[in-house]
């Protein structure tokens, strides 16, 4: 009987001892213990899961909202902070609540230079789930349109470019727009004028650093309005027309891939009554953008997908694409040497995605072949679970 009473007490003692040892291991693992928790950087990636991480010149930056953006139009909307600085001062970069006034900008019927939103910024969904579609997303930068409208009181170039970005995002889940302001600042720091943006050398640089697949530049003429009013009519009748021309530049090949042009049917942009002229202009823009967005999405789909090695640190290979692009842990990537413009070199080996961090970056490890180098080209060879 004494032995039976002691057995439960002994079992409880053993269980408590195991729990105590486990808590010591997980909380403060000694240096001599064979099981390690991993490097501090890997642990810190947990704080970057919902942030956009950009790797430029082998340095990692986090995209954050600029708290001084509302003070002046000269202030950029976003800042790019080194990862270590962001993690040490995370509270200082907390994104403020979006003001209701910003939501009313889209409702303006006659945008002016002082009220236009900045075009070219990356438009992301509120949440960033892993893509469930089979196609991997391609990165595109759309520059503000060159506005050739003669009326200096109205500036439609930036506004039209942003409306086109929004329409493409609504229509397709296979395109990621890269922040134009970020690329502009990157070029300025290197003394590269924006006039050189379409040169093969700069296109190749943007392809390597930002993983850009295409650059979209364009210009617009209009919208031009025609207002009529009969003697017996109390209300005006207005029609408007606009023409937008743009070209898609393949950054990998370093040349123009396709030129697109569209204009609205003038009869379709006819409005009557109060503010008929302004409403006709907006309708003309919307019709033309709808046409262009279909063509742009189709042409971008035809481009070949690839990404690049952004950094190599020990056994870790950092990649300039991740969750938002559609990559998953376990995916196998084939590694190619860089070749001539528009071409890739020979196969070097294969790596497997081991982790995703930030919104759109990942890490991998060599499976076979030679160790990758910075700017090596990566193509998806096998899907995880396939």
Primary descriptors:
386 residues; Rossmann fold; Thrombin, subunit H; 16 strands; six-stranded antiparallel beta barrel; 3 domains; seven-stranded mixed beta sheet; alpha+beta
Number of domain modules: 3
CATH class call of the largest domain: Alpha Beta
- Total count of strands: 16
The profile of the biggest β sheet is: 7 strands, mixed
Radius of gyration: 27 Å
Structural notes for this entry:
There is one protein chain. The protein is an alpha+beta fold and 386 residues long. It folds into three domains: 1-37; 98-302, Rossmann fold; 307-382, Thrombin, subunit H (Beta Barrel), CATH 2.40.10. The protein has helices at residues 2-27, 40-44, 83-88, 100-103, 157-171, 180-189, 200-210, 276-302, and strands spanning 52-56, 59-65, 78-82, 138-142, 146-147, 175-177, 214-228, 237-250, 255-263, 270-272, 307-313, 316-319, 332-338, 344-357, 361-369, 377-382. Helix 5 packs across helix 8.
What topology does this entry show?
Blueprint (H helix, E strand, L loop, with lengths): L1 H26 L12 H5 L7 E5 L2 E7 L12 E5 H6 L11 H4 L34 E5 L3 E2 L9 H15 L3 E3 L2 H10 L10 H11 L3 E15 L8 E14 L4 E9 L6 E3 L3 H27 L4 E7 L2 E4 L12 E7 L5 E14 L3 E9 L7 E6 L4
Parallel strand pairs: 4-6, 4-7, 5-7
Antiparallel strand pairs: 1-2, 2-3, 7-8, 8-9, 8-10, 11-12, 11-16, 12-15, 13-14, 13-16, 14-15
Helix pairs in contact: 5-8
Summarize the structure.
The protein has 8 helices and 16 strands.
């Amino acid at each position: 009987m004494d032995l039976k009473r002691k057995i439960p007490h002994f079992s409880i003692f053993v269980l408590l001892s195991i729990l105590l040892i486990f808590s010591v291991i997980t909380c403060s693992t000694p240096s001599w213990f064979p099981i390690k928790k991993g490097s501090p950087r890997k642990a810190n990636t947990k704080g970057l899961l919902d942030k956009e991480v950009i790797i430029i010149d082998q340095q990692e930056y986090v995209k954050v909202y600029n708290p001084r953006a509302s003070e002046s139009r000269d202030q950029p909307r976003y800042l790019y902070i080194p990862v270590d600085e962001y993690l040490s001062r995370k509270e200082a970069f907390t994104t403020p609540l979006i003001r209701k006034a910003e939501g009313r900008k889209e409702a303006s019927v006659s945008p002016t230079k002082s009220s236009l939103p900045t075009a070219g910024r990356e438009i992301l969904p509120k949440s960033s789930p892993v893509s469930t579609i089979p196609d991997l997303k391609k990165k595109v930068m759309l520059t503000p349109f060159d506005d050739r409208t003669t009326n200096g009181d109205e500036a439609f170039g930036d506004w039209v470019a942003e409306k086109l970005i929004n329409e493409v995002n609504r229509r397709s889940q296979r395109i990621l727009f890269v922040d134009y302001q970020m690329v502009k600042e990157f070029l300025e720091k290197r003394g590269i004028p924006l006039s050189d943006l379409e040169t093969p050398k700069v296109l190749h640089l943007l392809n390597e650093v930002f993983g850009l697949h295409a650059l979209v530049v364009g210009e617009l003429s209009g919208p031009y309005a025609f207002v009529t009013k009969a003697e017996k009519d109390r209300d005006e009748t207005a029609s408007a027309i606009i023409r937008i021309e743009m070209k898609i530049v393949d950054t990998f090949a370093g040349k123009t891939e396709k030129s697109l042009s569209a204009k609205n049917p003038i009869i379709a942009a006819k409005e009557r009554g109060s503010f008929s002229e302004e409403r006709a202009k907006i309708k003309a823009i919307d019709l033309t953008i709808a046409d262009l967005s279909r063509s742009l999405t189709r042409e971008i789909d035809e481009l070949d997908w690839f990404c690049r090695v952004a950094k190599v640190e020990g056994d870790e290979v950092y990649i300039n694409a991740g969750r938002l692009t559609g990559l998953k842990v376990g995916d196998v990537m084939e590694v190619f040497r860089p070749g001539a413009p528009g071409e890739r070199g020979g196969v070097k080996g294969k790596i497997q995605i081991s982790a995703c961090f930030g919104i759109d970056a990942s890490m991998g490890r060599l499976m076979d072949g030679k160790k990758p180098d910075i700017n090596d080209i990566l193509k998806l060879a096998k899907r995880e679970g396939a």
